[in-house]
Amino acid sequence: MDKNRGDESRGDESRGDGVRDQGIRGEARGTASVPLSVLDLVTVGQGCTATQALRTSVDIAQLAERRGYHRLWVAEHHSMPGVASSSPAVILAHLAARTERIRLGSGGVMLPNHAPLVIAEQFGTLEAMAPGRIDLGLGRAPGTDGATAAALRRTDRLGEGAEDFPQQLAELTRFLDDDFPDGHPYARIHAVPGPVQGPAGRPPIWLLGSSGFSARLAGVLGLPFAFAHHFSAQNTIPALDLYRDSFKPSAVLDAPYALIGVSALAADEEREARRQVLTGALSMVRLRTGRPGLIPTPEEAEAYAFTPMEREFVDNWLGNVIHGTADEVRGGLDDLAKRTGADELMITANAHGGEARLRSYDLIADAYGSPDRL
Prior knowledge:
13% strand; alpha/beta; eight-stranded parallel β-barrel; single chain
């Protein structure tokens, strides 16, 4: 593919067959059949602040590192009061300074919202700060509503951004590898930190999706693929099949590698798990009906009078959330990994408070016998 990816000085991990996976492939811990990772949405609960949410994110990252989770990603969202992750690169720098081993990345950066050079510079900086630990996950959706996307992009022609995604991706890759051909308008432009300063690693690119577009593109380009099973479960297996069928070996991967995002929460008692996940369900009801807000408390969610239509939505939503005791969640995760053939599960624990989420990740690690590295 590009002229730099085969250079051993880049710090990529060799699999012994000439193909470099750049730290993509994780290692399963304990009795888990696949690597487990974390998606942190940096949620802000009713009565809490963004400052508290970001402190909780540090706690989650440190717990995930200690308990053997392979990676932790944060996702770009905008104009959502209950989510404080509008600036993934800033949050990742914060987390990188407070962890030592765990991989950190975006799940994802919404590429059409940004100039490719800006993303190359941000993630080149992160790679320089935490060498060999950064992932660059990219999506083509706006991560918000149409009006906010127009404000971000300074245009209301949003469809063009999605259609231009392959071209934007190619441009970003060129900036990361500093290999625009002679005569290209950007041939004399360098993303820094980057290869122009000397041998340097660079974060692996992942494509994210909730439908078939990015699945096919990731396969054709030989890139790792992350699918949003946590909010698009009906499309999971078709998208993964499309990714695998489209896959062409590349300098990045010699075989498909698919991660899926999973909404899961474990608690000491089944009833408590149900109370906690109901807060996320009510938050989604409000978001889908144009009333986004802070994540409600369990007490507020239990007292809420759902309409019949809202109740149907909640039942369907919770049907895709693995919740219960640690053993029940482990069983649900194992079944999902087997049904989908996913190479990695990335768990997001949606609940009002940080304590419930931290407890959940701890309990899941316990259920798989993952050691606690103090």
